[in-house]
What does this fold into?
Amino acid sequence: MELLDTLRDRVSDEGLKEPSDVCALLREEMTARLKNTGAGNALSEEIDTAVLIVGVNGAGKTTTIAKLAHTAKANDQKVILAAADTFRAGAIEQLQIWGERVGVDVIAHQAGGDPGAVAFDAMEAARARKANMVIIDTAGRLHTQTNLMDELKKVQGIIARRAGDFDQRVLLVIDGTTGQNGLIQARSFTEAVECDGVILTKLDGTARGGIVL
Ligand SMILES: Nc1nc2c(ncn2[C@@H]2O[C@H](COP(=O)(O)OP(=O)(O)O)[C@@H](O)[C@H]2O)c(=O)[nH]1
Ligand SMILES: [Mg+2]
It folds into this structure.
């Protein structure tokens, strides 16, 4: 592994002998790798942004959206949420409840509706209401569900066409307890929609999560 090779080289170059020094070096190298991803720009305050949130069922997409909205609102951004998970029972209501709690508008259609149409309306609403951040929730899906992956591409295309001045981002949400399967998820979602960043959830209940590296 590239990380271990780098570590080995640095340990011998710098003549480190103490395990604690090696640990500190490992931490430094790991942090450096995480910093160079550019994912942090997703919540930029300077640029209007449309963020598409993708991932498998139960990864924590909707909960993460509430956290992102809360943070953005605390930074004086005007946020609109789009309930484009029209598939799972109760998903729209779940986002609406979070919208009420956080105090941001939620654009929603009926259950079973077209997610692309929700995304379209959310972009229109963002312009009309002068919002500077749109966060689009989506239904969970597996990489094996080709039709659902195609649907995701379609939603992304609609956002792209309606984006105007909005910068577009795709963030992949991965359950931190997932382990190595997270890699497969990252590969397949990136193939479909080019993810800009990864959010690892549920780190409060697990010591796993190294997959993010
Ligand atoms: N402990 C913990 N639970 C979480 C976290 N994020 C989400 N969950 C829980 O995971 C479950 C699925 O979350 P949800 O946001 O609905 O997932 P989605 O299907 O990807 O939208 C819910 O019970 C959440 O409360 C987290 O960071 N920590
Ligand atoms: Mg959800």
